[in-house]
Design a protein that fits this description.
Strand order of the largest sheet of chain B: 1-6-2-3-4-5
Shape of chain B: globular
Strand order of the largest sheet of chain A: 2-3-4-1-5-6-8
CATH architecture of chain B: Roll
Number of helices of chain B: 2
Largest interface: A-B, 37 and 29 residues
Largest sheet of chain A: 7 strands, mixed
Helix content of chain B: 10-25%
Shape of chain A: elongated
Helix content of chain A: 55-70%
CATH superfamily of chain B: Ferrous iron transport protein A (FeoA)
Oligomer: heterodimer
Number of domains of chain A: 2
Radius of gyration of chain A: 27 Å
Chain lengths: 572, 79
């Protein structure tokens, strides 16, 4: 039997950094059976023995007040050893959970993380006395630099069931904590540090809102910078100098025919990476050569914002607005995540407490938040016609997000609880943990996007060969023209978009449409349906019944918006 | 100097107050207390967002944002 070590602690104590120090590379993200709570687990070898390490969701107490805390409690029950990670700068509050854990009759080690921080803050903790008072090993660590981690590993065998702390009431625990703190902690009076001042400036509305706009602007600028450079200096050279010649050789070898069309596209040189619609050309180049670089850049930036502790401040600032839309400030997280790839965005709607909030946030995400693939479509199709057209698409989506949110908030039954969020101190992010997190999120994209693009190219080609697409396009021609002012062929792009939005780029470009018609097509493509991958995740998250509601909303809204845009933009 | 009890939402920014009562359901009170927002705790208001937006408070050495409605249920005395 492999022994199970469970990491427990309050949110924002650097638990996941300790976890990534202990586990190294072999980490799996899993879903706790029967719930929508994700957690990480990994393996560690010490002196010939292998342990399974589980990073439980952060919790403030063992009396769960939400699903994640219930899961944490379940994990605790199956634990052989518990590592309780606490924030040394916030010992008093963290000790509440520690006392509850000590009452559980499990072997425990207490980890005082962020040990380096207490010096700056004028806090002195006598860890030896604390060890005596609690009756379990106490190890100071700085997980960020790895300090103390070795000590922790060698002490795992010393974890023991405490014999000092007796079960008591909630009030009793706070009294106990008061007397422990008196014996082990001295806090010097301290001046406002620079970090405190930045913290204040970024959360007070008068300064916080301009700063937030600046941070968002700079973040997107950096995403673009990283994404563009990855393409120019890394991916395009690889595709152009190594991959394309290979494909050209293959093209020659296969010769014209159905297989060629399927794999590479129309026979003949030059082979176009975007418009050829072959599985090995468009099917591979768009997700990897166009979308992936921006996804990497985006999630790296977002993980940095998360790990420094900025996001909760942003959530505080936007709370009032999001409350009007039926969510609360935390609703900005699914929205931001969705800008990379809608799949992680959809998964993160779990963090909202009620069904109403989750429904609104997921529906708005699917309708109004363009993922990188959709953004690639918007820029790819409209870019050469000018920024003005791109602007129309974005303004439409933003207005839609707000109007739809206001409407849904009114008509969807259920509660929208208020925000309740810890604002952690600003911290230097751990590059290792940030990269790990970025990778986890990119994996969603790789796992979902490439198979669906392959499948999409395959299905479209088969439908083409059978004449089905042409038939649908002819049949819908009158409707498309009269309602949306678009040629019938645009139907094919809309059908393709069901599978992957980025696949529609090549199709729209090759159609003869005016820039304003393209604006309508691109906006409708963004709104009417998320990709298949997001759709299937949403079914799991919302349940079939709510998803049908949500999907009807998507289609209804797309038709209305397409029609309105036609009247406004084309004037007929 | 002790003054009369006020809801947390009326505690001026940067003034310190001592919690003297929690209102609301058992679950809500339990959640607050487990986090350290309990009777006797000294807290400070860091900022309040406009238009009855959420309140950010500081206690021990941590900060927390909570909605106005919740903050209204916490009674404090200025110290």
């Amino acid at each position: 039997m492999i022994k199970k070590i469970v990491l427990m602690g309050n949110p924002n104590v650097g638990k996941s950094v300790v976890f990534s120090r202990l586990t190294g590379a072999n980490v799996i993200a899993s879903n706790y059976p029967g719930t929508t709570v994700d957690f990480f687990k990994g393996k560690m070898r010490v002196g010939g023995e292998t342990y399974e390490i589980i990073d439980a969701p952060g919790t403030y107490s063992l009396e769960p007040s939400n699903k994640a805390e219930e899961v944490a409690l379940e994990m605790l029950k199956n634990a052989d050893i518990v590592i309780n990670v606490v924030d040394s700068t916030n010992l008093e509050r963290n000790l509440y959970l520690t006392l509850e854990l000590l009452e559980q009759n499990k072997p425990i080690i207490l980890v005082l993380n962020l040990w380096d921080e207490i010096k700056h803050l004028g806090i002195h903790i006598d860890e030896k006395t604390l060890e005596q008072l609690l009756g379990v090993p106490v190890i100071p660590t700085v997980a960020l630099t790895g300090e103390g981690i070795k000590d922790l590993v060698t002490n795992i065998k010393n974890a023991k069931v405490n014999d000092k702390i007796k079960p008591t009431s909630e009030e009793g625990r706070w009294i106990e904590i008061g007397s422990i703190i008196k014996k082990v902690e001295i806090v010097e009076h301290r001046h406002h540090t620079l970090r405190d001042r930045i913290s204040d400036l970024t959360i007070k509305p008068l300064t916080g809102i301009p700063i937030a706009l600046g941070v968002i602007f700079i973040s997107f600028w950096i995403v673009r910078l990283i994404g563009e450079n990855l393409i120019i200096y890394l991916l395009d050279p690889i595709f152009d100098n190594f991959y394309l010649p290979l494909i050209e050789g293959l093209s020659e070898y296969i010769g014209p025919g159905t297989i060629h069309t399927l794999l590479i596209g129309d026979y003949g040189l030059p082979i176009d990476k975007i418009e050829s619609l072959g599985m090995l050309t468009t099917g591979l180049y768009i997700p990897i050569g166009v979308v992936l670089p921006y996804i990497i850049a985006f999630y790296f930036m977002l993980s940095l914002l998360e790990d420094t502790g900025y996001l909760p401040r942003l959530a505080t600032l936007v709370d009032k607005v999001f409350h009007k839309l039926g969510m609360h400030g935390h609703g900005i997280v699914p929205m931001f995540l969705g800008l990379g790839c809608n799949v992680p965005g959809a998964l993160s709607t779990r963090t909202l407490e009620t069904r109403k909030q989750r429904f609104i946030s997921a529906t708005l995400l699917a309708i109004c938040v363009p993922c990188m693939a959709q953004l690639a479509m918007v820029f790819g199709v409209l870019g050469k016609h000018g920024i003005f057209y791109i602007f129309i698409v974005f303004i439409t989506l933003i207005i839609l997000y707000i109007i739809l949110g206001l409407i849904l908030n009114r008509f969807i039954k259920g509660e929208s609880p208020e925000i309740f969020l810890e604002i952690p101190s600003y911290r230097r992010p751990s590059i290792k943990a940030t990269i790990k997190k970025t990778w986890m999120r990119i994996r969603w994209f790789l796992k979902e996007a490439i198979p669906f693009l392959f499948l999409g190219v395959l299905i479209i080609n088969v439908l083409y060969a059978l004449g089905i697409l042409q038939f649908i396009s002819n049949a819908l021609q009158p409707i498309m023209i009269s309602i949306f002012g678009m040629p019938g062929d645009a139907t094919i792009a809309l059908i393709t978009g069901l599978l992957r939005k980025d696949l529609a780029i090549g199709m729209l470009i090759s159609l003869d449409m005016t820039p304003l018609q393209l604006v309508i097509a691109v906006t409708m493509l963004t709104i009417y349906f998320p990709c298949v991958a997001t759709f299937s995740v949403l079914i799991k998250e919302l349940g079939m019944k709510d998803m049908i509601k949500s999907a009807s909303l998507m289609i209804g809204v797309a038709v209305i918006v397409g029609f309105l845009l036609k009247i406004i933009l084309l004037g007929v | 100097m002790d003054e009369k009890p006020i809801p947390l939402t009326q505690l001026p920014i940067s003034k310190r107050g001592r919690i003297i009562g929690l209102d609301g359901g058992q679950g809500f009170k339990k959640k607050l207390r487990a986090m350290g927002i309990k009777e006797g705790q000294i807290i400070k208001v860091v900022t309040k967002q406009p238009f009855r937006g959420p309140v950010t408070i500081a206690f021990f050495s941590c900060q927390m944002t909570l909605g106005r409605g919740m903050a209204d249920k916490i009674t404090v005395e200025v110290i």
